[in-house]
Amino acid sequence: MKVIIRNNSKEGSIWAAHHIAEKIKAKAAVTDKPFVLGLCTGSTPIETYAELARMVQAGELSFRNVISFNMDEYVGLPEEHPESYHSFMRTNLFSKIDEPEENIHILNGNAEDLDAECAAYEKAIEEAGGFDLFLGGIGEDGHIAFNEPFSPLTSRTRVVTLTEDTRIVNSRFFGGDMNLVPKQALSVGVATVTDSKEVVILAFGPKKARAIHDAVEGPYSHMCTVSALQNHQNGIIVADEASVGELKVNSYKYFKAVEAVEKI
Ligand code: PGA
Question: What pTM, to 2 d.p., does this model score?
Answer without folding.
Answer: 0.97
